[in-house]
Amino acid sequence: MKNRLGEIRKERGIKQDELAEILEVSRQTISSLENGKYNPSILLAFKIARYFNMSIEEIFIYEGEENGK
């Protein structure tokens, strides 16, 4: 799953550690999300979307399953 988290965070002038504190996760979690190495739980995705006043789909891009499934 791709996401626009880093782009949105930077546009709003928020540092990774600030966002991590607000969302009650580690800075490493934010970094991993932004680098596509970690997919958020549904709860975390909702918290991120709510914080930025956006829909989950505006932040996280689901690419579907591979092999046409």
What is CATH's topology name? Answer: 434 Repressor (Amino-terminal Domain)
* Beginning-to-end CA distance, first to last residue: 15 Å
- Our estimate of the beta-strand percent is 5-15%
Indicate how many domains the architecture comprises: 1
Largest sheet: 2 strands, antiparallel
Rough outline? globular
Strand order across the largest sheet: 1-2
Tell me which CATH architecture applies here.
Answer: Orthogonal Bundle
What's the order of the H and E elements? Answer: EHHHHHE
CATH uppermost class: Mainly Alpha
How does the helix and strand content classify structurally? mainly alpha
Percent of residues in helices comes to 55-70%
Number of helices: 5
Number of strands: 2
Residue runs with pLDDT of under 50 for 5 or more positions: none
Question: Short summary of the structure?
Answer:
With 69 residues, the protein is mostly helical. It has helices at 5-11, 16-23, 27-34, 42-52, 56-59, and strands at 2-3, 60-61. The protein has one domain (2-54): 434 Repressor (Amino-terminal Domain) (Orthogonal Bundle).
